[in-house]
Amino acid sequence: MERATFELLSIVILSLIHSHLGCNVTRNAVLLGDLFLEYTSVDGTTYALTSNNNFQSEEYLRLVHKNGVMGYLPTNICKFPNMIKIDLSQNRIRLVGNISCLVNLEELNLKKNSLTNIYNKTFSQLKKLMFLDISENRIKYLDPFSLAAPTLNIQYLNASCNELTSLDITNIVMSGPFCTRDFSHNQMTELTNVLDLLLNVSVTYGPGMVYMSNNPFQKWPDFRKLGVQNLTMLGTLLKFGFDFRGTNFSCDCEMVPFLEIAVEVIKDIWRDYFEVKCTSPPNLMGKPIIALVKNGSLDQFVCTKDVEEGCPVECTCVEQPSKSRLVVDCEGKGLIELPKHLPNTSLAYELNVCDNEITILDTRCYLEKVAIMNASNNSFKRVEDEAIKRLNNYLPSQSMDLRNIVLFCDCNNLWVSDWLDVRHISSDSIFCNTENHGRVEAIYLKDLLLHECQRLNLTNAIICISLATAIILFGLPSFLLYHFKYELRILFRRHDPSIWEYDYDIYLSSDEGNDTVCVWIRQVLLPYLQNFGYRIYLPMRDCLPGQIAEDEARDILRKTRCFLVILSESYLRQEGRPRTEIEWKYAWDMYLKDRHRKIVMINFDYLPTNLVQQRQIKAFVRVGKALDFGNRDGRHLENVQRAIGSGSNRSIYLKNTKPWFNIGILKSRNKVNFEPQKSMA
């Protein structure tokens, strides 16, 4: 009996709403001509016919065909642009198709058919369409703007009893008044904003009534994601009434921003006579939401955060937007340090870590957002300066509980006295254990230790200055000796000019894969040096086939006075550089042990120091011992000969019977600008 009375009351109220919105509209009596259908196929294809042979094109028409087997609208429907009413309910129509030609259509009833989708172009050109019924179909998806496009003016929309799982906001809001939009009895769990629509603050949407009842909603819609940038404007923007009866709303923290805007605004948007009630949590189940708002019970609308959302496993985290806080309760959980992280939120934290075994109040990123903190009954031995600085940013003095705390205090904790004094925190239960004075009240710490700390600081300063001086006097030379050891060896090495007999004067090392370098050696360098009678060993010319590279290099270098390196970018960049690395290793070792030997380097590619990674080669370049190729005075070959020094005074040089490598192709591709100079002998 009570349910019947309530339903009757709802019907009466809805009638009053429609009257208030001006929705009790009756069309002026117009004589309509009837169309008849002829089935042309077993799949439900039809053809429309007129009953009057004297049919006039300007005559208004209607098409009514219920309880049929139509699969599609009539194929010739566009021949009747003056159609104003179509009722094809209880057929088998699967697709509406293109009906933009029916520019005068006012009423379309497709109830109880087999429609599955409505596209945004389906009704977009039907500017006079006022009544649309697509209820009791199988519609799973509505395109954005398919039912509320700017060109549409649908006053009565019935899309109930379908299979919708979501609804886009663009199919709800209309600029200007409408009567009803019914989306009840679907499977909707969320409202979406696929196109990121932003509602225009200068436009009023509605008034009108939107039915969302008997859908499995659980979370209250976030209107900020639905285009309402400022919730305080919600009542101005949306002059809607919403019917959410039969939904499963959880009365949690996500509702609070909407409910807080004002009770009067909520009255306009949410008709409290429908008595929408909470279904969870247990303490609010069955209570009308509007009544909770009026009674100021929003502090009961909370969300519990779990470990996956950042809540420490030992603690309980509850978000309470009505009080702008997130409560983190870790009381008596045996903690030995502050939680490393807390749930991410825009609200302030209320942190309770009392009755634990925390020894260090260390720095945490979230401390600057802590508004209330209870750290009483812990075993603090040290408090980090940065932690206090972060707490000072937000935390009012009266919101910090430090009862029954004993700190170990020394000269590093003198700030505690000033901090307690400035923030007017009661210090009668905050004590310090000191080395020479035992337990004292923390606020008197500075008075007791100030002079001792000043003497200690002076002593420490003297020690630090002494250590710094010692480091400068002894450490800097050691660093320079280690870092520039190769450079120093090269600079201070003394060459023994006494004559010593070697089989070769020069061992010439280069990148044999560099065409430009090889051509220059063949056409310029070798002829020039040979004119002075130097005995030159060139691996690519003189190394016999089958010789082991390392053994050959070691044996020849033992018999050679000067190691001549053609330094190029490719010389340093060679993949693995097996041969040149071997050559350099033995040459450098012999250079250090035998003062008769020399290393002469030609910087063929003008490489700067920063591009040379090999330490010994880098040292040659850094101290200026590498001869720049093609220096500006044009005497680069003379400089090379001068660096090598006198030869063995033999007038011949050794020749290998092995044919010279083939550089015919290389000569054709590389033009060398340096010609051999005439002998200076």
Automatic annotation (TrEMBL):
Record keywords, A-Z: Glycoprotein, Leucine-rich repeat, Membrane, Receptor, Repeat, Signal, Transmembrane, Transmembrane helix
GO cellular component, one term: plasma membrane
Topology class, membrane: Single-pass membrane protein
GO biological process entries: signal transduction
GO molecular function: signaling receptor activity
Keyword Signal set for record: yes
Pfam families in the cross-refs: LRR_8, TIR
Domain of life: Eukaryota
UniProt keyword Transmembrane helix present: yes
TIR domain segment(s): 502-644
Main location: membrane
Signal peptide: 1-22
Gene3D superfamilies referenced in this protein's UniProt entry, alphabetically: Ribonuclease Inhibitor, Toll/interleukin-1 receptor homology (TIR) domain
Subcellular location: Membrane
Record-annotated membrane-spanning stretches: 458-484
Family statement drawn from the similarity comment of this UniProt entry: Belongs to the Toll-like receptor family.
Protein name: TIR domain-containing protein
Lineage: Eukaryota, Metazoa, Spiralia, Lophotrochozoa, Mollusca
